[in-house]
Amino acid sequence: MLEAFVYGAVIALIFGTVLPFLYRNKKARKASFGLSLISSILLLIFAGIVLYTGKEPAFQAFRFLPGLDFTLAADRLSAGFILLIAAVVPGVSIYSIEYVEHAKSEAGKDLQTALTNLFILAMLMVVLAGNMVGFLVFWEIMSLSSLLLVLHDYSSEENKKAGFFYFVMTSLSTTFLFLGFINLFRLTGSAEFGQLDYPTNVLTLPFLCLFIGFGIKAGIVPFHKWLPYAHPAAPSSISALMSGVMLKVAIYGFLRFLLFVSAPELWWGILVLIAGSLSAVLGVIYALKESDIKRLLAYSSIENIGIILIGIGLYLIFKVEGLEALSLLSLVGACFHAFNHALFKSLLFLCSGSVVHATGTRNIEAFGGLVKRMPHTAALFLIGSVSIAALPPTNGFISELILFQAYFYSSALPDPLLKVLLITTLSVFALTSALAAALFVKLFGITFLALPRTKCAKEATEVSKLMLLGEAVPAALCILSGLFSSRLLILLGFDLGIPDMLPLGLILVGACGLVWLAVNNSGTSKSPRISKETWGCGILAQHPTMEYTSAGFSEPLVVIFKKIYRTEISSTRVYADTKESIFKSGTARIHLIKFFEEHLYLPAACAVSGISSQVSKMQNGKLDTYVLYVFIAVLTLMIFTRYFA
């Protein structure tokens, strides 16, 4: 019975992939997104049944080669991530019905529609894969389909650079995953996922390979630089899927390995915790300086992936130390934050797509005053901003609260050095939360409030109803999963003692209503009590140049974190006299060094390029030389197989 829901969802996504190529018209594209919407409903039912009943269905999809069966399997972990996919896809599908029509050509519209369904299908199959072979095959399909979507506008040099960057990083990710799975296969003699009751010293190499492989795909520091390139290049609906779902698929793969390890090492948890803390704080710090709305959201995704890794690191540490209750609390907090981030980040990317479509630019400095021109988008964007800033009673508050609780109860740890580490990372986590709130005050305020700063913002209009409906779906889920969070977790069997947000939500709604009534009924006189001249310091009307800009809002934080940004300030002055006493004109420039690119990626790329140029000299075009190379390669392979395989 349960298999029917999965088969139905898969068939719907396959037809959704093929349909745009068969008919090539708007009706076919609408039907294609309708099929992806139907698949999400089927997956929602499937995941709900598995999570509630605890059933673990397993069934064979098809046989590729003897011993290489593509089996599908689901347990509560995979069902949780299927639920995540099913929660994000409806909003993206509804939004894309109109959004995809903005593509430049009919062929581009059809290709984007088909690849969107293929991308969703591949992510679903990765989560359902019952063995390593199927996992890697569908992982590659997921990577290639997302790469083609990043390159949808291949005429743009920016998109070409983003596609190349993404291709290199995703290839490295697959390489490390392949090495990790090969080591597990050598250890267990099977490609199936299963319990790993082995000494941790033999699991160290697979752990490191999988940590790097999944970490690259998830975008943890220092493997994160592909995100700020790929997200601005991809269509906004695809950015919602990549950030909301694809990054979590990498988290799922890492958890799939860790949960099978019976006795992990303590240093594993410390490594994951430190990597998560660095990703969280550096992600939000780099987001604060951005003026590109989609690049800012990409850095914010790095921050939230760091928060998820903090939960996973705490889970490993508490498990090793024998604190099972705290390890479960940390794991639930990490998984719940993954689900919540999928909702509010997909919402924010969809809303940003509406803003970019209405204004024609991604530059936050060009926005302003959009709350009057796009009021519905502004309201939905505000819900996403409040959620990601972890303000009650939204869902982001609850998942971060669970992780803070895990930190606060960590005083039960016997090791004082571990306590110092956790206090330090707790401080980083708290700083990250505060900076995230400041970040989205900046983003919402500069984008939607005050006066329009450019003509494109002044002439912006609200997007279509279907796009608004697509944004409203994750917005509603952000509110509902926050208000009913404690009830949902109890329904799933996790009574964590977190506060019930529903009464608090009702109190906040009532308080806001009272404030609104008080403001609107505060007096009978219709004449202004404060003159414009006094309030504006003698200026009769405010001008857009008087407003805070994105750079101006972030400047104090840029100064505070100048050691991280590596800020370089340069200025030129021109004087009207020879004694340089009368200033005539000048320019000032603030340059932020791209540390990871300039000091990590570029040196590695130059080294690879140098090695490649030396290797290319071996290609002399002589047949005898190539036969010798083949002989040496075969001999080396035989020796390796004999002594190491």
TrEMBL record:
Q: What is its main location?
A: membrane
Q: What's the domain of life for this entry?
A: Archaea
Q: Which keywords does UniProt give here?
A: Cell membrane, Membrane, Oxidoreductase, Transmembrane, Transmembrane helix
Task: Give start and end of each NADH:quinone oxidoreductase/Mrp antiporter transmembrane domain.
Answer: 129-411
Q: How does it sit in the membrane?
A: Multi-pass membrane protein
Q: Where does the sequence pass through the membrane? A: 6-23, 35-54, 77-99, 164-185, 205-227, 239-260, 266-289, 296-318, 379-408, 420-451, 472-494, 500-519, 626-644
Check the record and name the NCBIfam families matching this protein: PRK08667.1
Protein name (database record): Proton-conducting transporter membrane subunit
